[in-house]
């Protein structure tokens, strides 16, 4: 399982990095500035959240997934740099321009302070929500490059969701999907 996850991450990283060099030739992607800004904030929020949870509970799953989220943030930054999108990278933990993302971060941070299980549930929730949103975004996307980026991001998010749900199961509890159907959730977990 770890080898498959590592291979998927290498594939994601190399694919995004490889595609980003050809970005300036693709005119359609220029219309996706808001999408990439949103993706950037979502990835940063996940990075910040898992860091908070690791600091509080010292569960290695938070540290491992946070390191991967750092790479996702970096990849989205490279894409935006290649497109010439103006954005402000922020090293401030827990501060976001997007009010919806800020609200989610604030709520999940509070929830994650209750217990290590609550933090794992919050982490699984954010990954499940992210998968759901990525699937919605890909549905309306005609640009092949953006479709590939979203597809690769979803694969990574599925891997993270599995890690959190498996940690929840190890603690003797279960996670019930809130955004995905039971079938979609089962397919990811299988």
What does this structure look like?
- This protein has 190 residues and is mainly alpha-helical.
- It has one domain (2-189): Ferritin (Up-down Bundle), CATH 1.20.1260.
- It is 74% helix and 0% strand.
- The chain contains seven helices and no strands.
- The longest helix has 27 residues, at 144-170.
- The model is unreliable at 3-29 (pLDDT under 50).
Q: Any idea what the shape is?
A: globular
Mean pLDDT: 87
Show unreliable segments: 3-29
The total beta strand count reads: 0
Instruction: Let me know the CATH homologous superfamily.
Output: Ferritin, core subunit, four-helix bundle
- Give the strand content: under 5%
- Percent helix, as a range, is over 70%
CATH class label: Mainly Alpha
Q: How does the helix and strand content classify structurally?
A: mainly alpha
